Amino acid sequence: MESPIVAQLGQDVTLSCPFEFGLNVQPLNITWKKEEAEGPDLLVHSYYNGMDKLQRQDVAYKGRTQLHPERFPQGNASLTLRRVRSQDEGFYICHVKPELGRFSAQMQVTVEGFVSNRPSLDVYYAVFSVPLLIIAFIIINKHRRFLLRKLKSFQFWSQRKQQEGGDQPLKPVYSQ
């Protein structure tokens, strides 16, 4: 057996399965399984008579596997496993039954990556940004008169400062 295939947590990985094929690739049967220490092996993906047959696929792999039929004529029954999970670590077996003969390949997959039970920052942004915007709107709406007066006062003093020469200190204006 070859050295383990190292998969990154959350990324896709392709498991290789070379085989020799005859002239006709149509009656090709491909089965991918994951060996289990106890109990029956898990059905990862199956392909019979030109079609994926996923009715008995283990739930852990639903929507995460893909074969590449365009590669079959080159003797390649590789499987792409999407969004790798830590539970995907283990030994996989590929069985290929072409028109003549039978081929099997076994490989080990190890999963690397930090496992965290904490939600991502995107979740925090989604949860907290909407309430913060609502609170900000309520505060601004409640104090809008006061804020408008302050804004007008600031604009007045900014304009006056520009008229009198920029960064120079303002002189008080006394009305008579």
Automatic annotation (TrEMBL):
One of its GO terms (molecular function) is signaling receptor binding. Pfam families: V-set (PF07686). The keyword Cytoplasm does not apply. The keyword Signal applies. Its main location: membrane. It is found in: Membrane. Keywords: Disulfide bond, Glycoprotein, Immunoglobulin domain, Membrane, Signal, Transmembrane, Transmembrane helix. GO terms for biological process: regulation of cytokine production; regulation of leukocyte cell-cell adhesion; regulation of T cell activation; T cell receptor signaling pathway. Residues 1-110 form the Ig-like domain. Gene3D superfamilies: Immunoglobulins (2.60.40.10). The chain crosses the membrane at residues 123-140. GO terms for cellular component: external side of plasma membrane. PANTHER family: BUTYROPHILIN, HERV-H LTR-ASSOCIATING PROTEIN 2. This is V-set domain containing T-cell activation inhibitor 1-like.
